[in-house]
Design brief:
With 129 residues, the chain is α+β, with helices and mostly antiparallel strands. The protein has one helix at 2-25; strands at 33-38, 45-51, 53-58, 65-80, 87-102, 108-118. Strands 1, 2, 3, 4, 5 and 6 form a 6-stranded antiparallel sheet that branches.
């Protein structure tokens, strides 16, 4: 009888572990990193940057910090009006495999496959042609 109970316990644990590992394999996409970077020199523009990974390094040519974004990078600009707290998000989104953002100058260098898409501001999906 003890062997039968022990066998049932082991079988139940096996099923529990199998279902747990199956859940781990079907996880959604990895979490994305989000940055909101002000454009330098007092402009009322903000870059919203989204990527799979990011690393801040010093530029090799000058002592300027560069944010290196990798993995399906998206760049959107947000323009704020000089008076009031009203900001407008651009319907154009730059997408690239990789982006280097110079934090001092605001310059963006793109790498890999690069394209711009129009996003419908109401549905937040790619606008149809």
């Amino acid at each position: 009888m003890r062997l039968l109970v022990l066998g049932a316990v082991i079988a139940c644990q096996g099923f529990a572990l199998a279902s747990h590992s199956a859940c781990q394999e079907t996880k959604g996409q990895p979490e994305r990193l989000h940055f909101s970077m002000p454009f330098p020199a007092g402009h009322k523009v903000i870059y919203e940057l989204v990527a799979s990974s990011a690393q801040r390094v010093q530029s090799s040519t000058e002592a300027e910090p560069v944010l290196k974004l990798r993995g399906d990078v998206e760049v959107t600009t947000v323009t704020c009006r000089p008076t009031g707290n009203v900001c407008d998000k651009s319907p154009m989104v730059l997408r690239a495999d990789a982006v280097d953002y110079n934090e001092k100058t605001g310059e963006i260098q793109t790498h890999g496959d690069v394209h711009i898409v129009l996003i419908d501001p109401v549905s937040k999906t790619v606008a149809s042609k």
